[in-house]
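Reopening closed ticket. The problem is back. First fold of the pair:
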Amino acid sequence: MSTKSFGTAIPIFPSKSIDEQLDFYQAAGFEVTYRQAKPNLYACVRHRIVELHFFVLRPLDPAKSYSMCYVHVPDVDAVYKEFSENLKTAYGKIPAKGFPRISKPSDLTEDRRFHLIDPAGNRLLIGTKHTVTKLITKETSKFSSAFETSYRLMYAKDEPAAAAKVLDCVLSIAEEASATLRYRAYVLRADIAFSMDEWTIANAFVQEAERMALSDSELGDVAEECERLKEIKAHSLHG
């Protein structure tokens, strides 16, 4: 029986400032393994899940960055917990918006993942593959289809403006969906608005969700959304 040997891919990301990059990754829990000053600035960091290298590109606009890397891990929630707690200790709060930031883990069809975006806009998509395909929603309707598209745009693509546009087109027919899907849609729309600093919209959809009277069984089905709603409310107090 032959043993196959696999190579290792190491992303080389651009950065505006090596110092800024290293400060962020060290705050998250990475170790600086190399730093070069001449003939050009270059640095490397390492964590048990991935090694990253950086070079300087001063005209870089983080908002227009397309640099990304998918990192598969055995337990995405454990990695998120480690990074978020480290960042909270370093910054006094979990950076949820702007650059840098970290997103909450979300279940997609193929995996459960979160995004770690550094000061230069480079994105690590960190996820754990599902053992079986997971449906975002089991319902089949115009509303559920739009919800699923919006959900993926928000949590897989990190494109909140596009996610809002899709979901807003079907909110007028929300009553046609099940109570749990309506609740999930309201929380999703609140989360989208929160990510875009649209506090009035976020609060409006928080209230829509809170007005719903869900049974214990239904609340069990939307437990993760309930937790996200609490977090959005907590942030909105400072919005």
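Second fold of the pair, where the issue appears:
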Amino acid sequence: MNLNTREPMSDNLGVLETAALLRELTAGLIGITDFDEALTALVRIARDAVPGVAWCGFTALRAGEPAGGAASDPRLAELDDLRHGPDSPAMSAIRRREMILAEDLAAESRWPAWTERARRLGVRGVISAPVDVDEQMIGAMNLYAGSAEPLTTRHQLTAMLLAEHAGLLLAAVRDRARQAAEVDQLDTTLLEEGVVGQAIGVIMTQRGCPAPEALDVLRSAAASLDIPLREVAERLVITVSRPRES
């Protein structure tokens, strides 16, 4: 075996750490339907999993307008929220569609107002990577260093992978939220609709349950009988409407 072709142990470890981070990120966001909750989980997981990163934040734009963000430490929340000032590494990353690195804020001349606030909060360096979520939502993943240890090439690679993976996961969160909203709207429509609403009222009376649970019962019956929901509702209403034989 040619030992010169083998990767150093540290590089192998970096790959394993990154794979573990992406798995943890996926597990943390896979069942979430609320976008803000997903951002909170994202920045917390990234902060805890990336060595040399003291804090993590996310800057969000919706339809081109500032839409808040998330921060692993509430003290630093203003650094990620464009409503506190749009001139920032995150906005530069979003505008230029590329990763922005500021290794030493003490020598940084870009974003002067933001840099002053960041240094006052103890930030020594930052990496901002653009995140594409969907047609309406874009953002930036922000990794902050709090010590004199430099942000390395590995940090930049991790930020890039995090941003790409986070974009996919956050897009899925928004899709799930949209689907949940559509189901809620459909449920509201069904609850108010003629014969289906009557059938739901019957089930509520019979079982002493709330309307959503009654709708679930009706749906379960439709699935079991393999017939449309409306037909099940009609059968139920007709059945209970028949006069009882004396």
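Update: turned out to be a display glitch only; the data is intact. The chain is about 55% helix and 15% strand. The CA atoms of residues 37 and 76 lie 18 Å apart. Please close again.
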